[in-house]
Design goal:
By secondary structure, the protein is mainly beta. The protein contains 1 helix and 21 strands. Strands 12, 14, 15, 16, 18, 20 and 21 form a 7-stranded antiparallel beta sheet that branches. Strands 1-8-7-3-4 form a 5-stranded mixed beta sheet, with no helix packed on it. The chain has a 3-stranded antiparallel beta sheet with strand order 2-6-5, with no helix packed on it.
Length: 267
């Protein structure tokens, strides 16, 4: 029977949580993939085990969800193993915010721009790089910061309800160095309508991290950066109420609290 290691040391998780799945290195095991929430990703071979990361989206339906693991052995044998993950509802308050009116009542031009950018971002998140690019544990992108705020909060801008907050906001003065949470490839760095100056990192195996509202971008698309490398400087560009860093993480398309990723991927 498969042994499965999750952040909570049980087959249970809350909305918005990242999970690490550990598969022991059985004799003859040649490859394994995981299927979760309509997405598929490969396990990475790491020493005496195989690792994969999955995420429970912040709006995932509470209840029992199936997690499927497909294994292939060197002698061509294959097996399908299924585990159940019990998803619990999270607690996400509502936050009232006041921003520039142009970010709430969009002009025709701004609406078209935002729609184009949404399509670009969706295409990025739909791509699963098969190899693992990250190395060791993930880290907070701001030195001396050990907590964030408002992940999953239902946001109301100028009295208008909007989508829940898919990342966590970290307090930072303009010009504060923003560092890569782990090794990854820069897949997008540009000014976006809502997000301001933005950097997107692909860490492989369906794991992405984003750094938004930067005052300056200091990397180029295609760069491979190491954990701790400065990718930009904190700022207040885009739809903001003041300078800060929005740090977001997607795992196989799921919006997860970045701080649930910190104890995972340690091999």
């Amino acid at each position: 029977m498969i042994e499965t290691t999750l952040l909570l040391a049980a087959l249970a998780a809350s909305q918005g949580q990242a999970l690490e799945i550990v598969l022991p290195d059985e004799p003859g095991l040649a490859a394994a993939t995981i299927e979760w929430n309509g997405r598929t990703a490969a396990f990475a071979h790491a020493g005496s085990q195989w690792l994969a990361l999955v995420g429970v989206d912040l709006e995932a339906e509470p209840g029992t969800h199936d997690l499927k693991i497909n294994v292939r052995f060197a002698d061509a044998r294959t097996e399908v193993r299924t585990e159940e993950v019990e998803v619990a509802a999270g607690t996400f308050p509502t936050t009232q915010l006041e921003v520039e009116p142009r970010y709430v009542e969009l002009s025709v031009e701004d609406a078209a721009r935002a729609a184009r950018e949404d399509r670009t971002i969706a295409a990025i998140y739909a791509t699963t790089t098969p190899e693992r690019l990250w190395r060791g544990p993930f880290a907070v992108p701001l030195e001396g910061v050990d907590g964030g705020r408002n992940f999953g909060h239902r946001r109301v801008f100028n009295g208008e309800p909007r989508a829940p907050h898919s990342g966590t906001d970290l307090e930072a003065e303009t010009g504060t160095p923003v560092r890569a949470a782990n090794r990854g490839r820069v897949v997008l760095c540009q000014n976006l309508f809502f997000s301001g100056n933005a950097v997107f990192l692909d860490h492989g195996m369906g794991v992405y991290s984003v750094y938004l509202h930067l005052s300056r971008i200091q990397v180029n698309e295609g760069d491979v950066v190491e954990r701790g490398a400065v990718v930009g400087l904190a700022g207040a560009t885009g739809r903001v109420t003041g300078p800060h860093l929005h740090w977001g993480v997607r795992v196989l398309g799921a919006r997860v609290d970045p701080f649930t990723l910190l104890s995972l991927g340690s091999e």
